[in-house]
Structures are given as C-alpha cells and as structure tokens.
Design a protein that fits this description.
The complex is a heterodimer of chains A (about 260) and B (about 220). With about 260 residues, chain A is an alpha/beta fold. Chain A contains nine helices and twelve strands. In chain A, a hairpin with a 2-residue loop joins strand 11 and strand 12. In chain A, helix 3 packs parallel to helix 5. Chain A starts with a strand and ends in an 11-residue tail after the last helix. Chain B contains nine helices and no strands. The radius of gyration of chain B is 21 Å and the shape is elongated. Classes of the chains: A alpha/beta (about 260), B mainly alpha (about 220). At the A-B interface, helix 2, strand 8, helix 3 and helix 5 of A face helix 6 and helix 7 of B.
Chain lengths: ~260, ~220
C-alpha cells in the first residue's frame, strides 16, 4: 500500500510549551486514522500541522512522496505559494464549519475549484452538484448557510473540501460544536467517505464512531503517541494507564442498549 | 427684542452661494475619494504585523486623528510652503488637511472591519489553498465592506461639515461665501442661518441613508 501521508519527527512548540514531541505517523491510501486524547494532548495541533495551518517547529511532512518545504528536519523553510499549493491537495473540515456566509451553499462548494484550481464554470458546477449530492444536500444548493442547521452546514463544509478532490481529508472535531441530535448525520457522511476509500485523518471525541470506522486509532498524550493500533486493541484492550483513564472518563455514564423497536 | 429678518441678500447673492455650494461639494468628493483610497492602504499597513509597515502607519493615524483638522489645514497653508519648495493654494491646503484626516479615520474603519471577521473565515479560505490576496478578495473584504458601509457614510457626513473649515484660508466654499456676503451686506445672522439650512439640506438625506443602511446591515439580518 502506498503512503499518502508521512509525518516524520514532527514537533511543535508555542513559546516554551512543547505541544507535539517528535511524532511519527504514516497514513496509507484509503485508510482511516482516528486520533483521540484528552484536551491539551496536542491532537488538534497535530492535525493543523499536517496542512500547515500551524507551521511545525521541526520535522517533515511528505504528501504522496513530495517533501513539503526545504531544509533538514530540524529547520525547514516554507514558501507561501508552496504551502498554498499543498493545502489545495488536503481537505480540512473544522469544528465550527466556517462556511462563507456571503455565498450560497453551491457557491461555497464552487469557491475552491473556481478560485484555487481555476476550473471553468461548467466544471465548478459539476463538482458542486456532485459533492452536494454526495452529502445529501443538493436540494439546499441555493440556500445561504445561515438558513441551515449545524449538521447541514457541516455537511456542506465536507462537500466544499471534497470539491477540491483532495488526496487526504482532515477532520478537526467535526461534530464537537453540534447539538447531539445532529451529530449522527455528520458521522454518517464521514463513514460513507471512509467506505468509498477516502484517506482520512480524524480528531474526534466520538469513540463509538472511532471504533466502527477507524482502521487505526492513535491515543495522544502530552504531545506523544502513547498507544496505537486497531480499534479493538486501543479502545477495548488498552495497555497504557493513561489510555485506560481516558476511556474510564468517557464511559462513566453509559446507557444500556435502548429498545428502539 | 425686535429683529427684522431680511433674507433678501441670499437671493441677491445667489450666484456666489451657488459657487460656494459647488466648491463645498467638489472639496468633499475629492477628499472622500482620496481619503478612502489611501485609507485602504494605511489600514492594510495597520493590520500588518510587520513593524516596517505597522509603525509608520500607526504614527500617521495617531498624528492625524489627534490633532484638529482646522490646524492641519492652516498648517498646510501657512507653514508647509515655508519649509518646502511647493506653493500651496487654498484648495490644495484644504485638500491635504482633509484627505490626511479622512485617510486616518477611514484606515481605522478598514482595519476594524477586517478584524471583525472571524478567524475561522481566514482559516477556511487558507485551507482551500487560497493565497493571502485571494483570501482577502474572495472571503474577507466582501464580508467586511458590508460592515464598513455605515461607518463610511458617517465619515462622509463628517467630511462635508469639515469642509467649512476651509473658509479660514479663504477657499471659496459655502461658509467662506457666506462670510464674504455677510461682510458686505451687514447681515451675518441671516447669512449664517441660510448656510446652516443649506448644509442641513445637503447632509440630511445622507444621514437618513446611513440609518437605513445601519438597520439593513445589522448582524443577523
């Protein structure tokens, strides 16, 4: 299997605070990697370093064999135009959706292909129709984001990222800002993407989702990958004490299987 | 006290007043256009994190925001020609003072308007692979300008009123014409009342428009 993404010795500090400490991670084509961990463990920062929303302090990122930036791992330098080109190849979905409020749903999805990829109008429309249909929101194409529910907005944000036809998708706590009853539709959309073979790197608190969808789960603690493996190994049979504590916290109030017939 | 109002001179000197009104409008429009144009760049420099852009822009804004426009106009008319090789006529001196003042204020409107846009908008545009200029042009400015419109209209209203300060250096705008007419026809009360009404008629429609726009562009509407 080819590696879409290789992260080598990635470190990130904010001033004296070391948030990521020499992370190594490879993501192979079509796989779904889920990152879990307590808040402050560095999982969002790790994701944001992958497409240089945060510039790593040290380490290297290789996308489909292309090393991003130049220099040695200790001191890399990046040009703005190189980073813009790189980001166009990586889709990102944010906690707070960040749709463009002055554009309709369809214009939101067309914006990337139009402005960044310089696609012609027919191609932009084709992509918008296709990916809005994929997230089940073709019927909302002419609505403005403010008229959509949170779950619908997030699905549009997913379509907007997909319209760039990215090599890998990043999800940064994509359901954390949603009302509980809206979480399901977004997770369902993400699962369908995973089933389609999209390469995905996901930060989430939805452990049930991680268990169902992930090929590999990473538990991050204090800027390091403390434990990783398939969902069964990390989420059901954790070995590290920190992982166990984390899972204990998440499972302290649990519903027995509700009878929904 | 009995006072016999006599507005006859307003009609007699209507030609002078009409010229004054035209000059007021010309001065206001020229200063508004130039002030907004330069304000965009100074605002961008103020927004920049680079000291080489930010520091001079900040110094400029603070200097011209915190000194009276009247003094700026007089300074450009009386002092500037002495310390520089340029001859400065009344229109140029008034334009310099008002443009620099409008630039300072409008740059603050631009800066505040851009800063009012949520960080997530920059991030979303950036994550799509947009360059800084594309982020600004496609995502930030279209949203920010809507929020700026009422503030700019307010500035325009202030500017029209400030043009009357050009009368102190004898630029022939409305206020200066009124002063001249009052001096020859001995009727300052009527003349100043009349020009007050002219200014009001010129500005009031603007003020109504500002209020309409403020309601229209309120967040969440």
């Amino acid at each position: 299997m080819t590696n879409v993404l290789e992260i080598k010795k990635l470190s990130k500090s904010f001033g004296d605070l070391k948030v990521l400490d020499a992370i190594d991670l490879t993501v192979s084509k079509g796989s779904t990697v889920v990152i879990i961990g307590a808040s402050g463990s560095g999982k969002s920062t790790l994701l944001r370093c992958v497409n240089f929303m945060e510039i790593p302090s040290a380490g290297q990122i290789v996308l489909q064999g292309d090393l991003i930036g130049s220099g040695t791992g200790e001191s890399m330098s990046y040009s703005d135009s190189e980073l813009a080109k790189m980001r166009a190849r990586v889709g990102m979905v944010f906690q707070h959706f960040n749709l463009f409020p002055h554009m309709t749903v369809k214009q939101n999805v067309m914006e990337g292909p139009r402005t960044v990829l310089k696609c012609n109008t027919a191609e932009c429309e084709r992509r918008a129709d296709r990916y809005l249909e994929k997230v089940g929101l073709g019927w909302k194409a002419d609505a403005y984001p403010s008229h959509l529910s949170g779950g619908q907005q997030q699905r549009v944000a997913i379509a907007r990222a997909l319209a760039m036809e990215p090599e890998v998708m990043l999800f940064d706590e994509a359901t954390s800002a949603l009302d509980p009853e809206l979480v399901g539709e977004v997770l369902q959309t993400m699962k369908e993407l995973a089933d389609d073979g999209m390469t995905m790197l996901i930060v989430t608190h939805e452990l049930g989702f991680a268990y169902t969808v992930a090929d590999r789960v990473l538990f991050l603690s204090e800027g390091k990958i403390l434990e990783q493996g398939d969902p069964e190994a990390v989420l059901i049979n954790p070995k590290q004490e920190a992982t166990k504590n984390f899972l204990r916290g998440h499972g302290s109030f649990r519903l027995p299987e509700p009878n929904l017939d | 006290m009995e006072y016999n109002w006599d507005f006859g001179a307003v009609w007699t000197y209507r030609g002078l007043l009409w010229t004054g009104l035209q000059n007021t409008i010309i001065l206001a429009v020229v200063c508004l256009v130039l002030g907004l144009f330069f304000g965009l760049f100074v605002g961008a420099a103020r927004y920049s994190t680079r000291p080489i852009l930010n520091y001079p822009a900040t110094a400029f804004v603070e200097l011209f925001r915190n000194t009276p426009v009247l003094i700026q106009i007089m300074w450009f008319f009386f002092a500037f020609p002495i310390i520089s090789p340029f001859q400065v006529d009344a229109f140029t001196a008034a334009t310099l003072g008002l443009v620099l003042n409008t630039t300072a204020f409008s740059s603050e409107i631009f800066r505040a308007g851009i800063q009012s846009i949520a960080k997530g908008q920059w991030e979303a545009a950036k994550a799509l692979g947009m360059t800084y200029m594309q982020q600004m042009k496609r995502v930030i400015l279209p949203q920010a300008i809507r929020r700026m419109v009422p503030a700019f209209m307010n500035r325009a209203v202030e500017l029209v009123k400030m043009t009357s300060l050009a009368s102190v250096i004898a630029y022939g705008e409305l206020m200066h014409q009124a002063k001249s007419i009052a001096a020859i026809s001995f009727n300052p009360i009527e003349m100043y009342t009349a020009v007050a009404i002219f200014y009001f008629l010129l500005i009031f429609p603007f003020a109504i428009l500002v209020r309409r726009l403020e309601i229209k562009f309120q967040p969440g509407s």
